[in-house]
Each structure stands twice: as structure tokens, then as C-alpha cells.
Design brief:
The structure is a homodimer of 187-residue chains. The first copy, chain A, is mostly helical. In chain A, 59% of the residues lie in helices and 9% in strands. The first copy, chain A, is built from seven helices and three strands; from the N terminus they run αααββαβααα. Chain A has a two-stranded antiparallel ribbon. In chain A, helix 1 crosses helix 4 and helix 6 runs antiparallel to helix 7. Chain A binds a DNA duplex (28 and 28 nucleotides) through helix 2 and helix 3.
DNA sequence: CGTTTCATGTAAGTGGTTACATGATTTC
DNA sequence: GAAATCATGTAACCACTTACATGAAACG
């Protein structure tokens, strides 16, 4: 899914400036969609020249001026079209899992760190989502709420599974397999 | 994570040809890592010129010849280095969730389809992973087994959550928001 | 005082995707 | 007969990433 559509979506959810969108991606959104910050401003400008958003400059004193964006009817239509056409992919894009697949080849410290880091991120996101549901969840559209609840379910399942199975990785395999002495035969 | 490292990983897991790797990506691997098939052959050739893999041609009658690849010691070292350096990202890259966030703007049929398709994929993958664990799981390295088990946990959690919450989406919100009637384009 | 927050961009480079090409054999 | 499987690639394009640039104010 391209950055432009993602930005339009953010604008429909109430964001106003490129900075707002960037923040949203760093927080909730970013958990399941990737966008580079610099790409956002670019996309916004492209959308503007295409007539899909309208911009208005806001002078500010004490802090940088900003540019507020609003989708035009054409932009909304384009968004809906993109939504309807986008194949509904869903995958756990994870270098962490790739790393864990090859856990034997990596220093235990790195594995430990990676696991700790991820569980930390998960608990933070869980808390954050939980708070959002309580505060704003009531007034949010059902789709948004659904995704938040679903996300919570998954993140909690991940945490639980990691905690339960973690020891399987940390216990070095009894004897058979220590590091990789000879790895041709694997096949 | 770049295609080359991914290919090296696949070779360490026992794959031999580009085609094998491609298949692995379409099956298990592909669930959490993206690679375009055409990129694989390219990557393999690059790896060969870099001296990270060795190739041997296999003449076949009745079907196309193939090129079997094997990592060199240098390749193995490069792989381990890449593993150690790669940040252990983990995110649910999901256009499906994006779609669901804006469920009100999409035709109920599309939502229904997307959900059905995904649950179908999930059950298939669950069965497949389950079977793998029973058949080959015993002899597989612990990292691989861990990921398979973790994957099962998550996929089951997803299925359960989707089934439980699905009705929240299908029930149109009481009054306020009934789709978007002006959806001229694709819809 | 140093760092984070706010706020918006440019420039260069490339890795990856899409689309195309080939062709025998087995399966339905 | 049509379609899928096996098997390997080339060519071109461009969206995205990384790195860099700027600068005031608030926070600690």
C-alpha cells in the first residue's frame, strides 16, 4: 500500500499536518504499516498537486509554521477506490522470527536482548491501546475499535506465548547441537 | 532484510535450487518475509559472484536443468554477520487491518470476502504447520521449532479473535454511519 | 546547558516489484 | 486439450530509504 493512500487515511482519521501523520505512524499505525517520515511530506505534496488534498498555511509564533491538509472530495473518492482495490494482505513481517529460527547461530545475549526488547515494546503498546480504547474508543468508528481490540488480542497472545516458550530457546539443546560445527549436512 | 541473506538462510535450512527457495517462500517462510521470485535468482547469482555460494549444474532429462547452490564458509560467515547485525524488527504488516479500520467505507461484501479469505489462509497454515511439527519438528533445530510453535499460537489467537469479534464489524453501526453511498468508482 | 519536541523538507541511490520470455512434462 | 509444475532468468521503472539540512522553544 503506497504512502499516499496511507496519508489520505490518516487525514480521514483526523490528522492535519505531515508531522501529525508522522507521529501517528510512530505510534499506533506504525505497528502494522511502514512509512518513512520523509516520504510523508513528499506524498502530501504529490497529493496536493493531484488535487486530492487541500493545504492551508498556518503561521505560528514560537514554533515552526505548519501546513494543514484536508482531503478534497476527489481525494476521498481516490481513497475509497484504493481501499476497494487493495488486496487485503496480512503478514507478520518479522526479522525477529527469522533471527529466532536461527537462534543456534546467534549469541545468547543477542537473543535475550531481542526478546526483552520485543516484550517491552509489546507491553507498552498494549497499555497504550488499552488506554486509547477506554478514552477515545467509545466515540471511534467501529472499524477502528475492531482493529484495536483485535490488536490487543494478538499482542497479548504474543506476550503469553513468548513468556511460556522462551525457555525452549534459552536452554541450549542438551548435547546434540551446539553452535554449528558442520553445517553442510543439514539438508 | 535483504534477499541475499534470506536466500543464504534458506540454503542453510537445506534448500538447494532457486526454485526450492521460491517454494519455501510461498509456503512457510512467506508468511513473515516478503521476497519476489525474480529477486531470488538475481540474489543467488550475486551471491555466487561474491563467493558466498557455490553452484553446480545438474543435467536433467524430461525437465529443465537445475542449479544447486551450497553456501561457502565465507557465505556462512556473511550470514552470521548479517544475523548479528540485523535489528530484530517485528511488525504485523497488514493491509487487511488497514481495510478493517475503514470498514465503514467499504462494501460489506468486500469485508466479508477479506475476512473469509484470511481465516481460510490461517486454517490452512495452521494445519500445515501442525503437520510439519509432527513430521519433521522432532529433528529440526530448536529455533525452527520455537518459531513454528510461536506461529501456531499466534495464528490460533488470530483465528479465535476474528471469529469472536467478527460480528462487531458485520452489524452495521445502529444508525449514524451507513457505508458511503457516493462511491461512484469501483466499489 | 543538552536533549527532545515541533515542523518541513531535499538529494542521492538502489533494491525490489512487475512484466515478460521460454519450454518440456505431467496432470486433469 | 488446458493448466499447472518444474526451472531459470532479463529489463525497466520508481517508490521508498538513508542521510542530510535547518532552527526555535520547551523541558529537565
Amino acid at each position: 500500500m503506497d504512502t499516499k493512500t496511507l496519508c489520505l487515511g490518516a487525514l480521514l482519521l483526523g490528522d492535519k499536518t505531515g508531522y501529525d501523520i508522522k507521529k501517528r505512524f510512530e505510534e499506533s499505525f506504525g505497528f502494522f504499516l511502514d512509512v518513512a517520515p520523509s516520504g510523508i511530506y513528499r506524498a502530501l505534496n504529490d497529493l496536493e498537486t493531484a488535487g486530492d488534498v487541500e493545504a492551508s498555511l498556518v503561521q505560528q509564533t514560537g514554533r515552526p509554521n505548519k501546513k494543514m491538509f484536508k482531503p478534497t472530495p476527489a481525494g476521498v473518492a481516490a481513497f475509497d477506490r484504493a481501499l476497494a482495490q487493495t488486496p487485503a494482505r496480512h503478514r507478520v513481517h518479522s526479522e525477529l522470527l527469522f533471527l529466532l529460527m536461527f537462534a543456534e547461530r546467534v549469541s545468547p545475549a543477542k537473543i535475550e536482548d531481542a526478546l526483552n526488547h520485543h516484550t517491552g515494546e509489546l507491553t507498552a503498546l498494549i497499555d497504550q491501546t488499552d488506554a486509547w480504547l477506554k478514552e477515545e474508543g467509545g466515540s471511534a468508528p467501529p472499524g477502528l475499535r475492531f482493529v484495536a481490540r483485535f490488536g490487543l488480542d494478538i499482542m497479548r497472545a504474543e506476550l503469553e506465548s513468548l513468556e511460556r516458550r522462551r525457555s525452549d530457546l534459552e536452554r541450549a539443546p542438551p548435547e546434540a547441537q551446539h553452535a554449528n560445527p558442520d553445517l553442510e549436512p543439514v539438508a
